[in-house]
Amino acid sequence: MKKQWWHGKIAYQIYPKSFYDSNGDGIGDIRGIIEKLDYLKELGVDIVWISPIYQSPFVDQGYDISDYYKIDPAFGTMEDFDELLKEAKKRDMYILMDLVINHCSDQHEWFKKALADPEGEYGGYFYFEKGKDGKAPSNYRSYFGGSAWEPVSGTDLYYLHLFAKEQPDLNWENKKVREDLFNMVNWWLDKGLAGFRIDAIINIKKTDGFPDYEPDGDDGLVRCTRMIEEAEGIGQFLQELRTETFQKHDAFSVGEVFNMKEGELEHFVGDEGYFSTMFDFAPLETTLGGHGWYDAPGYDFIRWRKAVTESQLLCQGVGFLANIIENHDEPRGASTYLPDYAQNSDGIKMLATASILLRGLPFLYQGQEIGMKNCRMGNIEEYDDIDTKNQYQVAMEAGLSPEEAMEVCFRHSRDNARTPMQWSCEENAGFTSGMPWLKVNPNYTKINVEEEEKDASSVLAYYKELLALRKAPDYVEVFTYGDFVPAYDGEEMLFAYHRKNENKDILIVTNFGTERTKFPLEKSGKLLLKNREDVLLEEDGLILPKCGAAVVEC
Fold first, then answer.
1. Residue 138 phi, psi (nearest 5)
2. Distance, CA of 313 to chain centre
3. How far apart are CA 217 and CA 141, in angstroms?
């Protein structure tokens, strides 16, 4: 594998609206991020990914961009952003931004001009199609529910939006669109940005002719991914994006990639792949329902372990994946990937150990390092997320009671990850001196940075130890480039693996079961890290209590 500057780094995602508010308006901002850079540095973070801060009407929390070259005033100014780049550089840290280029906002100048003249130059920037027999051009259901086609008033045309109707899809078949987007990407990289997280990128290639498919629901529609999965030729677009932008700047890129075809992994993240890395969504996919959140399966350790193991083995020798426990689009990992009896500080440390030391690039999400959990809302009105409101409706239409539908939202809502960061026991968790834009999780009095910084046994203290171990001079090589080798497969509730190279062999063992377990080690070893005092390494084996985790140098 060709060595790159980002190998061995730790990344951290900031959801800026909820991170830290420096001016008391209830919304996190760029200056708030600047104020917390030292906190991130001390945690062990090298790369900071910031969710969208471009100008936006915020129909989908900034993933609907109305001007790619402007900072939205809610977050500050371009001068603030330039200062952030400088302050990060002082600390040997790197800044990533979100790259949302499958679609833009319906308030973008391009789309306004397109609506005014769908047959003109800017009409070609989007997908305008004539309806069929007074209906939409095809029967696609958008990611957020309802038809993916929106009628254009006063015409027989519809425009395509795979997400909200306020997020029209850009037409990547149009060379001028690609050129404009590449110019924008290079403009940010020239500013000193280290790279991008690339949103929903697999959607940029559509199937020719937009054919209908057999409906998969009572609404007569079919999920839009059905069409995306059949599309051919996305590699040409992605290679051009890499060649014209990232490659020129030695930039780091992490792709949000679903629906990749079999055998394509090397094309996406190999040495000459389209992206530096891409998120591993295998664990997330074990939690997805067939028709929505309401029929999603519950947590299953065996299914989760199998998904992680297979994904690790698949990418070995090919490239790196970005390993996540949670992000802005998912519920909290502490409430999702742990059985009920393990949803405590020991269990959270155990999950962190299992994930952070995998082969690949660890991506933390804000609040993960203190063990933030899902937030129970009083009613659907307390949620802000557009997808949550849609999924609540889907659940109700499927026959669930309002109480049951709210329980579904509590388990799966994206707002679980978007509640304000919990900095202290002060009002509003120290996030803002004003009225927070979204409810603060009431557990902030117990789970917050200030309290955990005082406690040597806290989740935060453990995360610092874990990240320091991964980056320690004696171990960074094996944790970065070493193989992933599954271990103790026969133990039902253990997740264990080696990280090995020619010089070192590190065993990571985690006990997701309820029983204290003792098992022999193949080799004698040295205990590098444990999450509980009663994790013991003895001459004849390793003792792991419930929720125990150990890192052993063999």
1. -155, 170
2. 21
3. 10
User: Can you give the length of the chain in residues?
Assistant: 554
pLDDT recorded at residue 15: 98
Helix (H, G, I), strand (E, B) or coil at 300: coil
| 256 in catalytic set | yes
Q: Please state the φ and ψ torsions of residue 25, each to the nearest 5 degrees.
A: -90, 5
Place of tokens 């040997």: 92
**Tokens (6 digits) for 541:** 């084996």
Question: What 3-state class would DSSP assign to 64?
Answer: coil
Q: Residue 252 CB: number of other CB atoms within 10 A?
A: 24
The mean pLDDT value for 396-417 works out to 97
Residue 173 has pLDDT above 90, yes or no: yes
In whole angstroms, what is the distance from residue 256 CA to residue 144 CA?
Answer: 17
- Per residue in 296-341, pLDDT (tens digit) is 998 999 999 999 999 999 999 899 999 999 999 999 999 999 999 9
Question: What is the phi/psi pair of residue 211, to 5°?
Answer: -70, 155
Residue 429 reports pLDDT greater than 80 = yes
**Residue 422 to residues 22, 406, 460, 508: CA-CA distances in angstroms?**
14, 23, 12, 30
Band (pLDDT 50/70/90 cuts) for residue 260 is confident
Residue type for position 233: G
pLDDT at 490 over 90: no
Residue 34: closest CA among 74, 101, 89: 89
pLDDT at 259: 78
Measure the CA angle with vertex 392, ends 50 and 202; round to 5°: 45
CB 492 within 8 Å of CB 515: no
Rounded distance, CA 358 to CA 361, Å?
Answer: 8
Residue 406: which residues within 8 A CB-CB, separation 6 or more? 377, 379, 380, 392
- Evaluate if residue 491 carries a pLDDT over 90: no
Q: Which candidate in 80, 166, 199, 465 is catalytic? A: 199
* 129: β partners: 158
| Average pLDDT, rounded, for the chain | 96
Q: Is 200 left (phi over 0), alpha (psi -120 to 50) or beta?
A: left
Is 199 annotated as catalytic?
yes
CA distance 315 to 266: 8
Q: Which of the residues 46, 106, 256, 505 is marked catalytic?
A: 256
pLDDT in tens, 59-90: 999 999 999 999 999 999 999 999 999 999 99
User: CA-to-CA distance for 175 and 224, rounded, in angstroms?
Assistant: 24
Q: Taking the C-alpha atoms of 268, 288, 56 and 429 in order, what is their torsion angle to the nearest 10 degrees?
A: -110
DSSP assignments along 319-378, one per residue: --EEEES--TTS--GGGTSS-GGG-SHHHHHHHHHHHHTSSSEEEEETTGGGT------S
pTM flag (> 0.90): yes
